[in-house]
Every structure is written in structure tokens, then in C-alpha cells.
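Standup notes, structure subgroup. Blocker cleared on the 1,1-dimethyl-prolinium input:
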Amino acid sequence: EATTSVSEKLEYTITGIEPGAGQTETNEKAIAEYESLAGWKQETASSAAMLTALGNAIDNEEPIIVAAWSPHYKFAKWDLKYLEDPKGVFGDEEYITTIVRRGLKDDMPNAYTILDKIHWELPEMEAALLKAQEMDFEFEAVAQEWVDGNQEKVSTWTEGVESVDGTSINLASTSWDTELFSANVAKIVLEQQGFDVTLTVVDPSVLFGAISSGDVDASLSPWMPTTHGAFYEEYEGQFEELGPNLEGAKIGLAVPTYMDIDSIEDLEP
Ligand code: PBE
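Run returned:
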């Protein structure tokens, strides 16, 4: 049977990403919950390794099943489809939210106001991610170019906010493209406002604790409600959520469109 041979060819393996990604847990959950994935495993390494494996498979029209999320340039670069997830393990729509440490509003009202206003439309973010690919993922430069080209939008974030004189603020980001872009834009905008910004890249597991302890002032990186929901719950009440900076994100398992399966349930244990 065709689907059996696909699963066999895949050696019952999902090509995953970083062990510390929120989605790595979600993939394990899918493996545990779907009968069609009984006996499957995910191989974790990095997003870069997953993308290399995906590109190689597509070059050779071979089957592959990967941990996927959007926004991400892979959907513009290749013809991919998310596998249907009838059990809803990967949730429906995700949003990316901005969180800050408690007390930030009183300590740094100017930064708080700006962070609260930073928001992207999905097509805008997708365009920025394509640009990043062209610019070898030099996110500082990509963010600077975006800020330079979008002064009108930036001014809606900073309107009426007084400048400061070198106040230090610590931002943290996870290591994925959307987050690196948004964090670098936030850094530049806060620097324009006179802040001395330190940006640190951390794992999602570290992020919520660092904000909760006050070591980090703010982050625009959490994916909710599914991807980082467990971390969010663990620290709930110990940080402040300012709300979505991007809506319409998604995570799931994806395959090249030439593959003859549409659902996680089309796979074979
Ligand atoms: N991601 C992209 C991350 C968050 C952003 C879905 C790969 C994760 O923690 O899984």
C-alpha cells in the first residue's frame, strides 16, 4: 500500500528542530496521541539542519516530514503543505505575544508604551523574512533596513513618548527568524528613543524564567497558546503580558506537496 511505503521510506521518523523548541514537545505529543504515529520518532538537531534535509529531499523528490511553522520563508521557497491534524494537537492559530517583567510599567513607562504598541501584520512579517533570506539572515541589518523604510509605522509606536538618556534595558529573543527580526526592530526603535539595549538570545524554556526573575525586561518571542503554553502556565502571574505582536502564526507537521498524504492519520505505524 502506498502510504505504508511512505512511512517505511521515512523510517518512521519526523525531521524535527532544536531539542529546546516548544514545538519539539508538541511533536512528541503528536507521536503519543496518534495511532498512526505509534512507534515513530522525531530526530532533533536544529532548524538549519531540518531546512537542509528538506531542501535535499525536495531536490530528489523524496518523501520527508518535518516540524514546520509559519510565518517562515520555507513556505515561499518550496511547495509545502501542513498535514491535517484532526486531533488538534498542534492547535489552530498561534499568536506571538509580548511579555515584560513585573514593574516595568512603573520603572520604564516609555519603553513599556513602545513595547505595547509594536505589532506586525502577517504579510509584512513574511516580506521581512524573505528579505532576511536575501540578506543572509543578518537580522541587525534586516531590522535596520525595515526601520528605515517604515518610519511612518515606527512613529505610531513612539508618538508622544519622551526620549530617555541611556537607560539600560534587557531584551531577550529566541533564535528563530521571526523573533530575531522583531527583537532587532524593537532594539533599534528603543535605541532611537535613547535606551541602551542589550539583546540576548535564549531558549524558550529559559525565557519565561528570566522575565519572571527580572533578569530580562521584555521579550516579543512567546508563541501562544500551544507552542509555549506550558512555559507560560509554569510562570503565569510572575510576568505581564502586553498582548499579541503578530497574529495568524501556525505550527504543525508538513510535507512537500508532491507527497500523496494529507493528514497525520494517513501515516502508518
Ligand atoms: N518555533 C518558531 C519555535 C517558536 C518559534 C515554532 C520553531 C518553538 O519554540 O517551537
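Discussed briefly. The first helix runs from residue 2 to 9.
Next: hand off to the docking folks.
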